[in-house]
Amino acid sequence: MGSDTLPLLFNLDQENISCQDTTILKNVTLEINQGEKVGLIGPSGAGKTTLLRTLYQRVSGQSSFVHQHYALVPQLSVFHNVYVGRLDRNTTSQNLINLVYPREQVRQEIFPVLDSLGIKEKSFVRVGELSGGEMQRVAVARAIYRQESILLADEPVSSIDPHQAGAVLELINQVAETVVMSLHAVELALKYAERIIGLHNGEIQFDLSAEEVTPVILKELYQQS
Amino acid sequence: MLKTSLIFVGIAFVAVVLADLEVSTQHPWLEMGRMLEGIFTPELPVIWEFKASLLNTAVFALCGTFLGVILGIGLAFFFQYLPVRLFCAFIRAIHEIFWAFIFLPVVGLNSICGVLAIAIPYAGIFAKVYAEIIQESDQQPLEGIPKDTHRLSRFFYGVLPVIYADTKHYTAYRFECALRSSAILGFIGLPTLGYHLETFFKEGMYSEAAALLIVFYLLIASLKYWLKPRLIPVYVVLAFALLSREISLSWENVARFFTYEILPWPMRRQGVRDGTYRVSFVLIPVLEWVKGIWLDEAWEGIWKTVVLTQIVLVGTGLFSLFVFPFACRHFAGKVANRIWHYLLIIVRTTPEYILAYIFLTLWGPSMLPAVWAILLHNGAILAFLSSNNADLVQLRIDAPLKRIDRYFYEILPRIYGQFLAFLFYRWEVMMRESAILGILGIYTLGFYIHSAISDDQIDKVMLLILFTAMLNMGIDSISQVVRRRLKISTKLSIAS
Q: Of A45, A153, B180, B407, whose CA is between 20 and 30 Å from B323?
């Protein structure tokens, strides 16, 4: 049951989610409404990626996704990788022509996004030649260019310098209405997400607003074996 | 791996004992001297005189490869179906020369014959390789593409960029092979390089032969300079335009060929005798006919082909293991490396048919020329590859100083897996080559096929080619099983 005005976007009720015969998420009950900014935290292997992918499958056509391993095409340029964000919205001939010669209109749409992430100078450099941090920015740019109201992100700033990570997360929060992102830097989660969900061993340990999360709770989450 | 290697060595030993290897010419060394003299005094004007055949060689290769690529892509799309895979395996099991034999009676000795003889087996090869490249390519980029994207867009943005380098690389390599195939098609009468080379060798005109060969080497060596992707469409259009139009193709003849002339004689016998040319479906006489050919010709042809193949399989392996250190930086100095490098390139660029013809001229007909031709050609390929792999190995600073020790303890163990995988991969190529060298007088399958073509017995030609294809597919299967069992692959994995 969502609140009166905001629609319920995700609703999981005591679900077990498995991948290739291994149950990764156990007994998950979760509701996310439109407009929430949710941060997923927890030790590696807790199931954050699986949870994000599960949520993505329920809204795939109407959401943007930032992959943990970027899922970029190394042989294509930054520009074309970002263009892929809207590949399903254009006609095939538009896509093919763009591959050979990008139209001015498309350039005007994509360049500002690249600029906001500080990679505009590398617009036509092959992604394979970039550093990890730059590649991650391209992955974020692609999700932002897609401009959906729901944005799901799996460790979107893991390779980005902590000083600049904040700006990227700020941008994500501005562009998308509903954000669900997993972060391993807890301070960033507390600062840029309003609601924190702590995952441990495939189970939701806690589901609190950012203010309610105390160092004790965090210690318990990360120090269990 | 060692046990398997020794088993094959054992088989080869037996094969050598059973094979007919001898030098039957009177003055082989004298002849060789004349050949060397020819190499150093090439008759260059010949190049201009026979420019038409040089052009035809390139044009056949280009058109054949282009058609092969198009058909191959088409077939690759359906590669998930077993019948398609089997069909591709079948068409590539037949050597280009045998395909030429199939088309010769139908279209004659013209450009269509040459182009199709290359295009059809290559289509099968490209289908398999392209399908494999796509299958083994990185799937990750595809995950980043929106779900509802149209299939074509998904391919151009998520698959093509990823496979482009490998595909381009392999297609260029295949084009080089096509140039070789095109050249040797001349030996059976098509208007390419091999046609004049045969005359020159027969007449002992080695200076002229050398001139043509030099141009051929230069053509292949210079490929990387003029075979640029952007220019390919231009070349293709030009090639098709230059294809000789002197073809009088009667579709009636083609239809009659494929529906009547290739049928076994027993099925046509009655119709010919009573003048109606009816086809009768007589199972027993056909089976008798098959049995007859099997006992008279096919069995010996297969046996001799297998004997030859096994000898060259092991011979190639031993040859390259012996030779590759000379081109490898860990064993020889820079100058020696360079020299051996170029020697290997020259030998691997020379079509095995031409090598066989040279040795045939020197030693007379027996299995010896064929053994050395296939062995040197494939040995050079393998030695070149192995020396490149060996060059990649980084030796630890306390590696043994003696080169023998380095070879057996540091280098060989690291590259042996890939070396063996590639050797087994070439096994079916060697079998195909063994089969066609029968044309030069040894009793492998090619001999009998060539006789049948000369006698205009199309039905026998088809049956023998069918046997050849089945043998080839059999060896290819065994080769894959062996490689899987030994867990070796041709992909590079050097752990240094």
A: B180
